[in-house]
């Protein structure tokens, strides 16, 4: 590592690991499971033992506890979240997070606080959540319209929440008391 700098492939690697875990579960005839690979990556296998969908809370950025602005209900899906609110430091009053924009070499300033991606493909959820975060809302929505295989929830820095069409029936917004606005 040059001057102690390192590259962390945790995002894509977590997707790869989630895929392998699910294959192992299937091989062992496990039909109902949830596997968390950290706070930002979850694999859902089947439904809960009672037959209901798994529920995942989408965290309010910078919240001290388990506060959620929405809940998504899922079956046989992977979920990944990217945001600059969990891994960051503050220097001279400015916050620097861990998601870099390759064009600037600096932390992405895209106008998004978080991006949640849901898909059948674990590696895709990991890579897309980060890429969409860097793109910003407009470019990310254009990318969504031109590509299949995933759904997303976007939380902007101005507290607006957007959910893609394919996820709306499994999306419960509960962020009004945090000042968030759901933009349908």
- Specify the number of helices: 3
Outline, from the CA principal axes? globular
Task: Please write the string of helix (H) and strand (E) elements.
Answer: HEEEEEEEEEEHHEEEE
Structure summary, number of beta strands:
14
**Largest sheet report:** 7 strands, mixed
Distance between the termini: 46 Å
Q: Report strand %.
A: 25-35%
Mean pLDDT comes to 87
Radius of gyration: 17 Å
- Give the % helix: 10-25%
Class computed from helices, strands and strand pairing? alpha+beta
Outline the secondary-structure elements:
Elements: H1 10-27, E1 33-36, E2 41-45, E3 54-59, E4 68-74, E5 77-83, E6 88-91, E7 94-97, E8 100-101, E9 106-107, E10 112-119, H2 122-135, H3 137-146, E11 151-156, E12 160-163, E13 171-173, E14 181-182
Parallel strand pairs: 12-14
Antiparallel strand pairs: 1-2, 2-5, 3-4, 4-13, 5-10, 6-7, 8-9, 10-11, 11-12
Helix pairs in contact: 1-2, 2-3
